[in-house]
Structure to design on (115 residues):
């Protein structure tokens, strides 16, 4: 081979290698971006799992009591249940007191009747 041919072949190889190098760099950039996106997604998912565990009572809340959420959720139910019982009791008492009145309208079971 002559020097001119060797030079042309070498230039062709260099051009091919430069093009391949550019393509590989672009692929590497794409892979790095995918890795960053995957890491961000994983972090977001980890945070969501922690939030859900806290909501479902699988993790201690800020004050360290793992049952804090359960207690907070059951308190309103208890009071609403108690309130319903109290309303029912008052309604029952009102009905009974109207049944216990004398024809003059006075309540017969009133503890202040002795006066």
């Amino acid at each position: 081979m002559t020097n001119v041919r060797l030079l042309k072949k070498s230039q062709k190889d260099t051009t091919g290698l430069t093009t391949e190098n550019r393509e590989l760099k672009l692929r590497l950039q794409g892979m790095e971006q995918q890795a960053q996106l995957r890491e961000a997604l994983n972090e977001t998912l980890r945070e969501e799992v922690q939030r859900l565990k806290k909501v479902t009572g699988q993790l201690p809340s800020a004050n360290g009591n793992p049952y804090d959420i359960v207690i907070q959720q059951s308190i309103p139910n208890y009071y609403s249940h108690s309130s319903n019982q109290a309303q029912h009791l008052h309604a029952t008492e009102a009905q009974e007191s109207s049944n216990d009145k004398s024809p003059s309208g006075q309540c017969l079971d009133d503890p202040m009747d002795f006066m």
Residues 1-56 form one domain. The first helix runs from residue 3 to 55. The CA atoms of residues 49 and 55 lie 10 Å apart.
